[in-house]
Amino acid sequence: MPVTHPSFTHVMSCGLRLRCPRCGQGRLLERMFTMNHDCPACGLKFFREPGYFVGAMIINYGITAAILITAYLVSQYFPEIWHASAEVKILVWMVVAIVLSLIFVPFSRGIWLAMDYWMEPWAD
Fold it and tell me: What pLDDT, in 10s, does the model give residues 95-105?
């Protein structure tokens, strides 16, 4: 049975809501950092091969870097906002980078899975 090509907006909406890109109902995650292997609603396999979510790590890095670079440039443009030593600023930026990257782990996986499913839908 051929798989129909889904719309980009539907698939990305499902990815950002951490739902299955095929049915939009099943949750991607069991817990914050534990993904389901299959969709609980339609049975779509989320893990296609070893190393499948390397692309999600790249998305996560890109989102985190974009936010940090933007925040850093804004802080440099308005230096009167934050009066702190360079050491304190570096420590704060490091902590923010770690926290942001952890927050974006599930969303980057959802985006990666949605983009892959949109480009080449698979049956199971």
Answer: 999 999 999 99
Please give the Cα distance from 61 to 46 (Å, whole number): 21
By the 10 Å C-beta count (0-12 exposed, 13-18 middle, 19+ buried), 109 is classed as: buried
Which of 101, 122, 103, 99 has the alpha carbon at shortest distance from 39? 122
* Helix (H), strand (E) at residue 34: strand 34-35
Q: Which residues of the chain have pLDDT under 50?
A: 1
| CB neighbour list of residue 6: distance below 8 Å, 6 or more residues apart | 21, 22, 117, 118, 121
Model-level pTM? 0.84
- Residue 89 has what pLDDT? 82
How far is the C-alpha of 97 from the C-alpha of 91, rounded, in Å?
10
Count the alpha carbons within 13 Å of 58 in the hemisphere toward its beta carbon.
Answer: 7
Tokens encoding 124: 């199971």
Tokens (6 digits) for 87 = 């050491």
